[in-house]
Design goal:
Layout: E1 3-7, H1 11-17, H2 20-29, E2 31-37, H3 40-45, H4 47-50, E3 55-58, H5 67-73, E4 79-82, H6 91-96, E5 100-103, H7 105-124, H8 127-136, H9 138-145, E6 152-159, H10 163-171, E7 176-182, H11 188-194, E8 197-198, H12 201-207, E9 210-213, H13 227-231, E10 238-241, H14 250-259, E11 264-267, E12 287-289, H15 302-317, E13 324-325
Parallel strand pairs: 1-2, 1-3, 3-4, 4-5, 6-7, 6-9, 7-8, 9-10, 10-11, 11-12
Antiparallel strand pairs: 5-13
């Protein structure tokens, strides 16, 4: 049986992801080192016991290590199975050391897709603006509701068509809508398979009833959503952001929402999430801010452990796994 270890700085987080059912399955797959290794110093102190460890499992709280530290502490290491999303902060030294890296980023995409899909369905019905108005004046709420298209013959714009955007495009096939996608890396063949139309960002903002942002969090995408795009939004359009705050200038969004108050923004991410209470957007009735809840939360985090055990079983059989991350992928993925 392959020897494995947990490597994580926050054991409590690890236990949330690898809960009782997941641990029962994992213990049938590998011979697990009994303690959680929480730091490089701990790994160094236990290197004699860890010298035959071939795979490491982790999640949020995975410590960053240098190539030298990896080779010193885990001389037999061949693969890391990361039960969470982005691996950007730790993966390169492992990959450069010849260690394969697997990530549950596709598992983390599932709740984001479900969340965005639900928001889109409600946005096209005008729910976010109609509901609070109806509480004060039912007739006024109904009058406002008449301006929204509902979920038939509508245009939905997606920014980014990676793990989240592509899954969302597939879900949107459940309703009668035209899906426009901005993604420089999306091939014509892939677009046809997803039944989406490639478009420039300016076209999407000007024409779509809902625009949902799923661009990868990369230096190249900082500030990519321009002021003129927001100002071109339709009067009853909705902008959804479950991507990242720095991809736009929040002052531009503020101006778009105050210039045409019937527009709506649903923001699960902010540029400075620690100070969102002081953000002028927080005071707008047409801007709805949530504390980064779209991703895996509650019991959903256990799905990521299951994805990594699925990946391990494929790894053990020598079969291809879609959850493996390469150095080239790090250039474009979140």
């Amino acid at each position: 049986m392959i020897k494995a270890a947990f490597l994580n700085e926050t054991p409590d987080t690890l236990r949330r992801v690898y809960a009782e059912r997941q641990m029962a399955r994992l213990n049938k797959l590998v011979q697990l080192y009994p303690a959680v290794i929480t730091s490089v110093d701990e790994a160094r102190a236990a290197r004699d016991a860890l010298k035959d460890v071939e795979v490491v499992f982790s999640t949020w709280g995975m410590p960053a290590m240098t190539e030298a530290e990896i080779k010193e502490c885990f001389p037999s290491l061949k693969a890391v199975f990361y039960g969470a999303g982005s691996v950007q902060y730790f993966a390169r030294p492992f990959l450069n050391a010849g260690v394969r890296v697997y990530s549950a980023w596709q598992a983390n995409a599932v709740p984001v897709v479900q969340y965005a899909f639900a928001q889109i369905l409600l946005a096209t019905k005008g729910y976010f603006r109609v509901q609070p108005l109806t509480r004060a004046d039912r007739s006024a709420g109904h009058k406002l509701f008449e301006n929204y298209p509902g979920n038939y013959d509508v245009k939905i714009g997606l920014l980014g068509c990676g793990a989240i955007g592509s899954r969302l495009a597939e879900m949107l096939r459940q309703i009668d809508c035209e899906v426009l996608v901005f993604d420089p890396f999306l091939s014509k063949e892939r677009a046809e398979k997803l039944h989406v139309q490639k478009a420039e960002m300016a076209e999407i903002f000007a024409e779509c009833d809902v625009i949902s942002n799923h661009l990868a969090n990369l230096p190249a995408t900082v500030g990519i959503i321009k002021r003129e795009y927001f100002l071109s939004m339709k009067p009853y359009a909705t902008f959804i952001n479950t991507g990242r705050g720095p991809q736009l200038d929040e002052k531009d969004l503020y101006d778009a929402l105050t210039t045409v108050p019937t527009r709506t923004a649903l923001l699960d991410v902010m540029t400075n999430e620690g100070h969102s209470n002081e953000n002028p957007l927080n005071a707008l009735e047409n801007c709805f801010i949530t504390p980064h809840i779209a991703g895996s939360s509650g019991l959903e985090v256990r799905r990521m452990a299951e994805y990594m055990m699925d990946a391990f079983e494929l790894y053990e059989k020598g079969e291809k796994c879609n959850y493996e991350v390469s150095l080239a992928m790090l250039e474009t993925m979140a």
